[in-house]
Write a structure and sequence with these properties.
Chain lengths: 336, 344
Amino acid sequence: MARVRTGVRVVGAVLAAALGASLAGCSSTGGKRAEERAKAAEAGRPAVSTPRWTFAMVTHAGDGDTFWDIVQKGAKEAAAKDNINFVYSHDDQAQQQAQFVQNAIDQKVDGIVVSLAKPEALKDVVQKAVKAGIPVITVNSGSAQSAAYGALTHIGQDETVAGEAVGTELGRRGRKKAVCVLHEQGNVGHEQRCAGAKKTFPGEMENLYVEGTNMPSVQAAVQAKLQADPSIDAILTLGAPFAPTAVKAKDAAGSKAEVDTFDLNESVARDLKSGALGFAVDQQPFLQGYEAIDLLWLYRYNADVLGGGRPVLTGPQIVTAAQAAELEEYIERGSR
Amino acid sequence: MTAATAVDERLAPASLLRRLLARPELGAVVGAVAVFVFFSIVAPTFLQASSLSTILYSASTIGIMAVPVALLMIGGEFDLSAGVMVTTSALVSSMFSYQMTANVWVGVGVSLLVTLAIGFFNGFMLTRTKLPSFIITLGTFLMLTGLNLGFTKLISGTVSTKSIADMEGFPSARALFASKWEIGSVTLQITVLWWLALVAVATWILLRTRAGNWIFAVGGGADAARAVGVPVVKTRIGLYMGVALCAWISGQHILFSFDVVQSGEGVGNEFLYIIAAVIGGCLMTGGYGSAIGSAVGAFIFGMTSNGIVYAQWNPDWFKFFLGAMLLLATLLNAWVRKRAEASK
């Protein structure tokens, strides 16, 4: 065992040495310092003097999901402005998500924001909240069920509509044969996007399922698809992190296909600007979080309701090279 | 047991065929040939040189991890944290460089130390507590999954890392971990070279060194091994650190190939490594297997997962085909091994 303890000490010492060495081995380009230099601090102070209400947001986000992180950011900023105590919880298992909504009801919160990815599983608990007099706003998914369950309004993108916009855009760009890359098998929203795109796309469109948690395998699968069918001239990915990977796969396969994607992030913005990507479809996740909290506040403050019983759409917004430059700053700070 | 044989039968030179049949990877090789022939027939583009290079890349990313996982299995243990450890290694490297505005090589070095420390932790906990490796590494798996997410969120403010592509040292690090060469229509990824080198080194360790004997001995029966003077603790910790070392190589490849790392990646990949090792002839109970077998296993996996795409099958059934192909390959492997053992 003595040898083992020495091992621990050695590892510790080397770690400490590395930390010290890093101060010497600095990079004069990029990094955190560049980010800090570029960004001025933004203060989050309440703009209103209404009571400090508590709003809960319960989503079906998995751990470490880039998209929901932006939704949450939007909600937090609205909460800071509206003097709201914001409570966030999430679970990709519908049963656990319903449990979290129940927790919010138990805490007698002043408003609930919930995403209905699996509407049936959340039906009871949403109706329970409404019955308990808690205003509910649904976001992102569940536009069809929102009103029926008694929610005030729904804020989000209609996935089918978004898909249709993509199909039309691809057609406008003269594409003939497209592949829709789904990174989560069994995700209803993903299927709707691809189905919508297929509907309005004048050419031929196929689905390709890939393993979203394993980037090299995503690349290999897309590459394989392009090699199997050289006539493919458009690749559509459904999430921003998969777009640069698709570009890599395209280059490796020697294909001339255009890569387009749903959602934005830093590398998507960069690739849009450089022309490596054709266009991106944004459903403005920041807006979904921000509006949900802001509308709950408006309802509490002024009994205002938006949408007139119909979903309030936050997308699709087609972003091309021209807008990418303009949006880059916001993408970098993580609000687009 | 003829009393007066001139030569001990164990020392008698075995025929080439017999020696071949005794190899643990034989079943996997037969399985690989079967899968290869199958896809060559059903998928017209499967045999293209460029397609084969895609398959090789796919196989190498699994194979790099399958090598140490196979060694670990021969030593009688599992590592369920291997999948997320790859992501951890990439995250540490990326975030350290970014936050410290350091040359990316510094981050790469820190990542190596952190990853080796995790491997050491696994091995140390295992030998110290005597708990099954399933429990220890499941604990590590969960902790790393949480740490990956928690730290990334805490440090970067989002769930994926920032791009470090514009930082000093990136091009040279990319050259080592993620470069590729165009040879005609074929793209050779450096991961394939890493993979082959690891297989060669692991095979040499297993068959030609004392440490290799220790690994087989520990996997065959730890108490018996200890009784004859095998350093069981050291061997096990070494095996876990071997997994960590390869997780570091894979992690750096992912980082320098894709530039940005998502904190939720890697979950579930540990099973792919174990599958590759098992298809390659490693026994779930330890004491038997080979590094070359794990490479053949990874190759079968690469052929299957991409072959389905080349064959243009209905994607709704993708996972089913994948599972069925893997099961068939493993069954064939088991059958061949049984025949081989019976003929001895």
